[in-house]
Design goal:
Layout (H helix, E strand, L loop, with lengths): L2 E4 L9 H5 L5 E2 L8 E2 L10 H5 L5 E4 L3 H18 L1
The protein binds iron/sulfur cluster (2 copies).
Length: about 80
């Protein structure tokens, strides 16, 4: 199972990852404190948080390589259509 972590040394506390997470894994904190992982078992590996984080602060450990490949491939396809 994937393990989600937020690198507190990088996180800006913007909360965009928490806003985009469909299953409430992440929780925005007050005063731009680093976002917390509150429901790690509910992660569905959509990687929306990874894509939206401007600080590259969300870490997905044990992510199935094929899942990452699926997401990167679809992103590349999207870029090709735009170009
Ligand atoms: S999107 Fe990135 S920088 Fe913003 S709160 Fe989430 S982990 Fe932190
Ligand atoms: S990968 Fe998707 S489900 Fe998992 S924490 Fe990020 S946004 Fe939430």
């Amino acid at each position: 199972m994937v393990q989600i972590e937020v690198d507190e040394s990088l996180c800006k506390g913007c909360g965009m990852c928490a806003d985009v997470c469909p299953t409430g894994v992440l929780e925005k904190q007050e005063n731009f404190e680093p976002t917390k992982v509150v429901n790690p078992d509910d992660c569905i590996q959509c990687l929306s948080c990874l894509e939206i984080c401007p600080a590259y602060a969300v870490i997905h450990k044990e992510l199935i390589p094929v899942r990452r490949l699926q997401i990167e491939t679809s992103t590349l396809d999207m870029i090709k259509k735009i170009l």
